[in-house]
Structure formats: C-alpha cells, structure tokens
Design brief:
The protein has 136 residues and is mostly helical. It has 5 helices and 3 strands, in the order αβααβαβα. A 3-stranded antiparallel beta sheet has the order 1-3-2. The chain is elongated and about 60 Å long.
C-alpha cells in the first residue's frame, strides 16, 4: 500500500540525490551529509500554505541541534478549503475533524497526520518507512 510505496520512493530519492551530487559525500569516509535536508510526506493533492516551506526551513534551522533530528514538523491540515460552498454535513465534519486533529491527536503527541516533514537524517537513521508497523 501507501507505506511500501513511500518506503521505495524515499530510498530511491536518496540514491538519486547522491548519484546526482545533490547530497555531499565525504570521499574519505563515504558518509553522506544528511543534516541540512528536509523531507516532506504528503499526498499528490495536498494544498500547502503559500509560505509553508519557508516556515519549515525557519523552524528546522531554529530547532536546537540536539532535538532538530528527532522531531517531525506537522503541517497545518486544510480540510476546510471552500468550506462555504459545501453542504452543511460536510462543513460540520470538516470543522470537527480539524478540531480533533489539532486539539487532541497532534497536541497530545500521539502521531503525525497526513502531511509532515522531518530531517533527512531522521528518515535515513529511522530506516525510512516500514509497512509492517507504520500506519498510513
């Protein structure tokens, strides 16, 4: 499913970036520089706030180095796009869902939802995505 596809795509993307010189590789140790690249997980139809990646970069670089590589950055979830054009039930469910996502699940550090970003270092050291124990 989605998790195994994401796992394959992330591994292939890292190999591609190394092959094309987009990630620095130390010639002596063969270690890849992973500390200044972020990875964002999203769906093909994701709508991002127009300055999301600018804000992500700021948050990432301002996170203390001791925690920068151990956290996921949660994107705002826009379930309410053109909400005024939707049926009442759809509007009500969109508002309730956003409330629960922000108020309970994300705020309680339970899990990331749909769209999130992390350092490439965390992704690689965490061995990418694992369909056996990760839900998507």
């Amino acid at each position: 499913g989605a998790c195994s596809n994401r796992n394959y795509a992330a591994r292939a993307a890292v190999k591609y970036m190394i092959m094309k010189g987009l990630l620095e590789v130390d010639p002596a140790t063969k270690e890849v520089e992973l500390d200044f690249t972020t990875c964002t997980v999203c769906d093909a139809d994701t709508t991002f706030y127009y300055r999301y990646f600018e804000n992500l970069s700021w948050c990432f670089l301002n996170e203390p180095p001791e925690t920068r590589y151990t956290v996921c950055f949660q994107s705002p979830l826009f379930y309410n796009i053109t909400l005024d054009e939707r049926w009442f039930f759809t509007r009500a469910m969109g508002i309730i869902r956003s409330y629960f996502m922000v108020g309970f699940l994300i705020g309680g550090d339970i899990n990331t939802m749909s769209i999130y970003s992390m350092s490439l270092r965390l992704l690689v050291e965490g061995q990418f995505f694992h369909p056996g124990y990760q839900m998507d």
